[in-house]
């Protein structure tokens, strides 16, 4: 019996191995290392992915540095301008077109993502969506009963929530500008602006921390409601007993974590191999097993209800192109109404 199990494991390993170009693997092993700038939560995604990659390809060390979308984008730009590119591979959300306009990204369409939906890949190969995000609101279940939690935009604008709401101060799609864009896209310009002024009157607290850290403030009871929260973060915390839940505030905002290779990457082969690994079913399963939402149609999320196909909720997807074109306008509205 043990021999059969070993044989099956070897067969599985061989199948996975067939997905990766031997020449690319050899080139990556000669480089021996790669550096990844990421926005993924360290313990929930970055570390598991790095450890799985290193176990899959012994002899290649993957280092990672976690920061927000804005911080990662600026760091890449500054290092590129100084001629000291330190990272090989990166992921961002709304910052991708800033990097493309600066010509610091190399085109590399991974073979392992060939079956992904077209909207999850750049047509020229500059980025691929490694995982999906859906942003909504969360609430502290000790402070608000499920029946009383705001379930619509109208519910959210109630004066009862004045001074009880928090969100990140980051001026990105993951922050207030993304909420503004979702409202305007959903309601139209006139009705949307009228709603935003009503919501601004509630004085939501803009905290200089990440959306995940905002949710931690909600869990601790500092605020009753957190806006622009990733639904999978709330599900992860609720599963370990935290007093938090998320609401299908439809339409939710749909975003992508976009992964790419830097043009002047010191270790280009290792960078490309890591992208191939993350987009493969093997890498996508690592994300799914850690409650992230895979982009691959062949890898289901661990909690089906977190993705629209399993949760039955409506989504407004904000594409990278929309983010580039509309973010300045949405940011200006935030500065005018909320500050």
Helix-strand layout with pairing:
Layout: H1 2-17, H2 22-31, E1 33-38, H3 42-56, E2 61-66, H4 69-81, E3 89-92, H5 96-101, E4 105-106, E5 128-140, H6 153-156, E6 165-168, H7 176-187, H8 189-200, E7 205-207, H9 211-219, E8 225-230, H10 231-239, E9 244-247, E10 252-262, H11 268-279, H12 281-289, E11 293-294, H13 308-311, E12 315-317, H14 320-337
Parallel strand pairs: 1-2, 1-3, 6-7, 6-8, 10-12
Antiparallel strand pairs: 3-10, 4-10, 5-8, 5-9, 5-10, 5-11
Q: Return the domain count.
A: 2
Mean pLDDT: 92
Please state the CA-atom Rg, rounded to the nearest Å.
21 Å
Cα distance, first to last residue? 68 Å
Largest sheet: 12 strands, mixed
The portion of residues forming beta strands comes to: 15-25%
Shape descriptor reads globular
Low-confidence stretches: 1-18
Give the full name of the CATH homologous superfamily of the largest domain. Periplasmic binding protein-like II
Count every beta strand, where a strand is a DSSP E run of 2 or more residues. Answer: 12
CATH C-level label of the largest domain: Alpha Beta
Number of helices: 14
| Proper CATH architecture of the largest domain | 3-Layer(aba) Sandwich
CATH topology of the largest domain: D-Maltodextrin-Binding Protein, domain 2
């Amino acid at each position: 019996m043990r021999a059969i199990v070993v044989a099956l494991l070897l067969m599985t390993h061989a199948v996975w191995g067939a997905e990766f170009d031997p020449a690319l693997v050899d080139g990556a092993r000669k480089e021996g290392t790669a550096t990844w700038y990421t926005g993924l939560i360290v313990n929930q995604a970055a570390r598991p992915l790095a450890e799985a990659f290193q176990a899959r390809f012994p002899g290649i060390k993957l280092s990672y540095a976690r920061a927000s979308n804005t911080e990662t984008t600026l760091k890449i730009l500054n290092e590129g301008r100084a001629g000291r590119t330190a990272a090989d591979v990166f992921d961002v959300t709304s910052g991708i077109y800033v990097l493309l306009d600066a010509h610091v990204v190399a085109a590399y369409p991974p073979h392992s993502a060939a079956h992904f939906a077209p909207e999850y890949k750049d047509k020229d190969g500059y980025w691929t969506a490694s995982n999906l995000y859906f942003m909504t609101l969360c609430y502290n279940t000790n402070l608000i009963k499920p029946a009383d939690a705001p379930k619509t935009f109208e519910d959210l604008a109630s004066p009862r929530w004045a001074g009880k709401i928090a969100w990140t101060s980051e001026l990105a799609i993951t922050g207030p500008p993304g909420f503004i864009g979702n409202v305007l896209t959903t309601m139209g310009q006139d009705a949307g602006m009228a709603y935003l002024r009503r919501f601004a009157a509630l004085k939501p607290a803009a905290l200089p921390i990440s959306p995940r850290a905002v949710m931690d403030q909600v869990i601790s009871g500092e605020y009753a409601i957190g806006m622009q929260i990733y639904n999978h973060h709330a599900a992860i915390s609720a599963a370990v007993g935290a007093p938090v839940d998320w609401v299908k505030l439809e339409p939710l905002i749909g975003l992508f974590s976009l992964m790419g290779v830097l043009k002047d990457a010191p270790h280009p082969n290792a960078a490309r191999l890591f992208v191939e690994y993350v987009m493969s079913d093997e890498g996508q399963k690592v994300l799914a097993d850690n409650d992230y939402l895979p982009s691959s149609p062949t890898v289901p999320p661990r909690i089906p209800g977190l993705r629209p196909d399993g949760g039955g909720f409506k989504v407004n997807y904000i594409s990278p192109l929309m983010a580039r074109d509309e973010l300045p306008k949405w940011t200006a509205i935030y500065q005018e109404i909320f500050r």
